[in-house]
Write a structure and sequence with these properties.
Helix content: 40-55%
Radius of gyration: 18 Å
Protein name: Dolichyl-phosphate beta-D-mannosyltransferase
Strand content: 5-15%
Strand order of the largest sheet: 1-4-2-5
Number of domains: 1
GO molecular function, one term: dolichyl-phosphate beta-D-mannosyltransferase activity
GO biological process, one term: dolichol-linked oligosaccharide biosynthetic process
Keywords: Glycosyltransferase, Membrane, Transferase, Transmembrane, Transmembrane helix
Largest sheet: 4 strands, mixed
Order of helices and strands: EHEEHEHHEEHH
């Protein structure tokens, strides 16, 4: 099963390379990645877009095992997809690849270098609503993958770190 966003930001010529690891049986899930050697972005991104992309990626990497878990260009086998049956796969938001990697319990994830091009058709779905839905999707996937205890521990650790930082800043100024 191969998925490629329809906005032509992914090169159709890369389909065989992205499908190859799954067809060869060496991967449960192959991701067309701009974040590995040989991959990249074929146009200039604004600073804001780079920050949003890198931030969203950093939040999802622990769930996925991919350097580009936000990619809309991926391949998985029918058997891998079947493992997700009954796992509550939900395309809320717009990152179905991340959802499938987690809920289908993909352990053998392979990144395949691709060049991400400027959009030829359509327009970005990125909005504040999509950002909120993405955060909700991440929370749901972290609970699914690691359990509520890990999520709560992480939230507490971040809260303590923020409080310590605020305390340090308060005392300095």
């Amino acid at each position: 099963v191969l998925c490629m966003d329809a906005d032509l930001q992914h090169e159709p010529e890369a389909v065989p390379a992205v499908a190859a690891p799954v067809l060869a049986g060496v991967a449960d899930f192959a991701v067309g990645s701009r974040n590995v050697g040989g991959g990249g972005v074929g146009f200039e991104w604004s600073l804001l877009r780079r920050i949003i992309s890198h931030g969203a990626t950093l939040l999802a990497v622990p769930l996925s095992g991919s350097s580009d878990p936000m990619s809309g260009f991926f391949c998985l086998s029918k058997e891998t997809l079947a493992r997700g049956k009954g796992a509550g796969i939900n395309a809320r938001g717009f990152k179905i690849g991340l959802e499938l990697m987690v809920r289908c319990r993909c352990r053998r994830v392979v990144d395949v270098p691709i060049t991400f091009r400027d959009r030829v058709a359509g327009e970005s779905k990125l909005s504040m609503k999509q950002n909120v839905e993405y955060v909700l999707q991440l929370i749901d996937l972290y609970i699914f993958r690691f359990g509520i205890a890990v999520l709560l521990s992480t939230v507490i650790a971040v809260a303590v770190a923020v409080l310590m930082l605020l305390h340090f800043m308060w005392r300095r100024f």
